[in-house]
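Entry for the shared binder. Reason: the reviewer on the internal report wants the predicted structure included alongside the sequence.
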Amino acid sequence: YQWLEQALAADPPWNETERFTLRNAYAEFLRAQSRYPQLVAWLAESVAADPSGLTVYEQYLDALLWNGPLE
């Protein structure tokens, strides 16, 4: 996780496709380890960082459902 966080914070910044790939890899690692509360938080940050991406909203909804009942 630390490498991905450092890579995403790198200067010069990654292009949009590379940034999406890195953020998606981070989310997949969290999902594979069933770390749903952290996944929800990570995807909330991803939505804020790129609100135009449809895929991140789908992942976010999926993570919310796996994390527990919606209120």
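Summary line for the report: The chain has a mean pLDDT of 87.
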